[in-house]
Amino acid sequence: MPVANTILQLFPAERRGFWKRTAACEKDIQEIRLRAYRPVVIHMGGRELFLDSNGLFLDSPLHAYSATPQELEGLLKHICHYSLYAFEDELRQGFITVSGGHRVGVAGQAVLEDDGRLRSIKNISYINIRISHQVMGAADGVISYMYGEKGLKSALIVSPPGCGKTTLLRDLIRQISDGGAWGRGMTVGVVDERSELAGSFCGVPQNDLGMRTDVLDACPKRLGMLLLLRSMSPQVIAIDELGSSEELEQLFRAASCGCKILATVHGDCLRDVERRFGVGREKWNQLFDVGFLLGRRDGRCMMRELIRMGESDA
Q: How far is Cα 236 from Cα 254, in angstroms, rounded to an integer?
C-alpha cells in the first residue's frame, strides 16, 4: 500500500480532505504533531511547517489551524478501531504502531497504580505521528566495511538523535539477511522493543528486514535477546538504542554464543558512550569490530567517522 494511503487512513473519513495535501508529501514528512488548542506542526524535509484551515501549508503559526480536544479524541479512537481497551497495553507504553509501520505517540494525564507503576494514560491531549520511512540502500555506503576475511563483523552505530541510526540499522539487517556480493545471507534475530525497526502491525513487519530475519516485537531487549537465542538460533542479533548495562551484558552473552552483533546507541562520540555506560574502550573492542559515527552536515545525515574497534582483519 502506498505510504500516502497509509497516512491518510490514520484519520477519520470526514477529516481526510483536510489531510490529503499533507499525506501527498509522503517522502518528506518526518512527523505530524497535534496538540490540543495549539497549531498543528508538520516536520518535513528538515523544516517546521503549519497548516491553515484548509490543510494548506504555512511557514508561520500566525494563522495556523489548531487541533481541538474533540479532534484528538476522534483521531485516537479511529486509530484504535474504536476500541481503546484493546490497545490498552500499547497506550501504557505511550505509543501505538499502525499499518504502514508508522508510530503514533501519545501524552496526557498519567494514571498510576498504588505501587507507582503506570496503569494508563487518559485525557490524551498530545499526539505525535512519526512517519515510517524505509530507505532501501541506506547501508550501501557502509556494507563493504561489514565484511572481512573472517566474514561478517559486529558493528556499533553511534549517533545523536535524528541522524539516521535506525534507518541505517534497518537496511544493514535487510542486506545481511538477504545476502549479496558482500556475503551469504545470514539468519538475523531482531529484538524490536519499540517497533521501530520492523514497524510490526499485528505481529507482521511493515518494513522489509530480509528473508532470513526473525522479529520479536514489543519485547524488552534484555529479555528478547535471550528468548531469540533459545528459540530461533540466530547468527546475528540486532537491537536499536542500547540503553542499559543489563542490555550490554546480554549482548556479551549473545556474542559468547557465537552471534555477531548489530546495535545502535545514542551519543556524540564513542567516548561519550563509554562514560555513560561506565565501560572502557577495551570492553567495547571485545564486543564490536567496527563502529559508525553518524552526524549531520548542511541538514543531511551522514557518516562522520569510521571507528576501528576490535577488528582483526581488514
A: 9
What is the distance, to the nearest Å, from the Cα of residue 9 to the centroid of all Cα atoms in its chain?
Answer: 21
Nearest to 264, CA basis, from 157, 162, 138, 155: 157
Q: Give pLDDT tens digits for 83-140.
A: 887 788 888 888 888 877 888 999 998 888 888 888 778 888 999 999 888 889 999 9
Q: What is the pLDDT of residues 128-151, one digit of tens each?
A: 999 888 889 999 999 999 999 899
Residues 209-233 pLDDT 10s:
999 999 999 899 999 999 999 999 9
Q: What is the CATH number of the domain that holds 84?
A: 3.30.450.90
In a domain, 136, yes or no: no
The pTM for the full model equals 0.80
Residue that has been written with the C-alpha cell 540499522 in this structure: 169
Indicate whether 107 and 218 sit together in one domain.
no
DSSP string, 38-74: SB-EEEETTEEEEE-TTS-EESSSTT--BB-HHHHHH
CA distance 178 to 34: 39
The mean per-residue pLDDT over the stretch 278-306 comes to 90
Strand boundaries in the chain, DSSP class E: 29-35, 41-44, 47-51, 57-58, 95-97, 103-112, 118-130, 147-148, 151-152, 155-159, 188-192, 213-217, 236-239, 260-266, 290-297, 300-308
Only one residue has cell 572481512, namely 148
Query: What is the per-residue pLDDT across 56-84, written as a single tens digit (0 to 9) for each?
Result: 999 999 999 999 999 999 999 999 888 88
User: N- to C-terminal Cα distance for the chain?
Assistant: 42
Task: Determine the angle formed by the axes of helices 245-256 and 221-231, rounding to 10 degrees.
Answer: 20
Task: Identify whether residues 123 and 183 lie together within a single domain.
Answer: no
User: Which of 281, 283, 216 shows the shortest CA–CA distance to 249?
Assistant: 283
Cα 295 from Cα 282, distance rounded (Å): 24
